[in-house]
Design a protein that fits this description.
The chain is of the alpha+beta class. It is 41% helix and 22% strand. A 5-stranded antiparallel β-sheet has the order 1-2-3-5-4, with helices on both faces. The two termini are 44 Å apart.
Length: 464
Amino acid sequence: MVNPTGAHFQVLNALDTAMAPSEIIAIVERCPSWRASGLFVRGCKVRKVQPTKEGAFELEYRFKLTRPSTGDKVRATIVGKIYPDEEGDQEYKKILESLKGQGPLVADSALTGFVQYVPELRLLLASPSADAKLPSLRVALDPHAIKPFLADCLNRSMHRKESLSGCEVDILRYRPGKRCVLRYRLGASRLEAGDVHERSFIGKAYGNRADGADVFAIMLGLYRNRFGRDSSDGIRIPEPLGYIPELHMVLMEDVPSPSLAKSFSSPHVIDDLQAAARALGKIHACPSTVDKKYEVEEEVSSLEQWVARAVQLYPDLAGSFESCLRGISESAHHIRCPEPVLVHGDFWHKQVLIGHNEVTIVDFDTIGNADPARDVGNFLAYLKYTGAELRWTEEETRRYAEVFLAAYRLPTPPALKTGIDFYYRASLLRLACVVSRQPKEWGPRASLLAESLRSRVDSAALPV
C-alpha cells in the first residue's frame, strides 16, 4: 500500500480542482491577457492526467473557443502542470522572460503567448508554444512563420513550384516535451498554371532531432518497399514528403480516410477487421529492419512504471493493479520469442485508416524488431477495451477477435500463441493504467483489470 507524503496529499487535493473543467475555465478567464484578447470559452474537456517521475501531475485541456473578431469557432490545447514544490513558480517566471517582446496573447488555436500560474494550486497553465523542450512549436504553430518551411519542403518533394496562401494550424495530438502532431490547411497554386486548390498536410514535430530524422527514414523506406500509394494490395502508409531539420519535423500526406474505430458501428466491421489483420501481417512479413528492439523484460519493466504511476493517482487500487502485475510478470518466464520481425509497436484500431479499397497504417514512433505477438496481443486488448466502452456482449467481442485472428496470415506456432496471450494481458493492464488517468473512465478500467487477472486469449481462435 502506498503511503503518500504531505506534499503528495497537497498535490492530490489540487488535482481535484484541476480536473474540474468549470474551475479551469474560471481560472483562465480571470487571466488579464485572456480578458484582453476577448476570447470566449464555450467549453473545456480534460483530455488526460499523468503523474511524472518528479511527483508532479501533467494535464491536457482541450478548449472550445470563439474568436473575438470573426466569431469563428476553434479548438485549442492548454497544458497544465501541478508541482509538489515551488518549481512551478520559477518555471512561470522563465516562460514570462522568454515571452518578452512577443506581443499579447494571440487569439487563435495556438494561443501563442498564453501562460498563467495559480500559486494556491501550484498549477502552471501554458500553451504548447511555451514548451521549452519543444522550442520548434513557436514556429510550427505560427501560420505565418511556418509557411516558408512548408513551401520549401513541398517544392522539393513534389519537384514543382507552388505558391501557398493562407494557413490554418490545428493540434491533433500533443505529448509535452516529446512530440506534437499538427494539421496544416492551406491554399496552393501552381505557378505555371495559376490554379488554386486546398491542400492539407500532417506535420509531426519532435523534441529530439534524431527521433524525427529516424522516423522519416523509416517511413521513406517502407513507402518505397511495397507500402506506397500504388501498392498492389492497397495496404500503404502516408507518403513522407520531407524532413524539416530546423523544426525536427516530419511532413507527410494527410490521409482523409476514417480510422477503424468508425467501423465498429457500421455493417462493414467484419471486412474492416480482416483488412486490418492483413495489414498487420504485411508489416510482420516486411524485410525492413530497424535499430529499436523490444524484449519481454522491457515489457515487464514498462508495466511496473505504468502501475506505479496509476497507484499514485489511486492508492486504494494498489492491490488490484499489483496483483495483475505479479501474474503477468510470472508468465513472462514462459515466453519463448520466435524469430523477431518488424513490428508496429503500438498497433490498435486508431492507427489503421480504412479507405475505399485501401488500408493506411499510421504512426511509426514505436516501430521496431520484436515478437510479432506484441502487435497481435495489443490489438486484441484494445478490442476488449472497445467492447467494454461500447457495451458489446461477450459473444460480439469474442467474434470480432476471432475474425481478426483468422485473417492474420502468418504461421502461429505454440510459442506465438503463448506470446499473444502474454502481450494481450500486459496490454490490458497498461490500458487499465491509461484509462485510470481519464475522468469518467471507472467502468472500462474495472473491466480491464478483471480481464487481465482472469482471462486468456481463446487458443481455439488462433490460426494454425
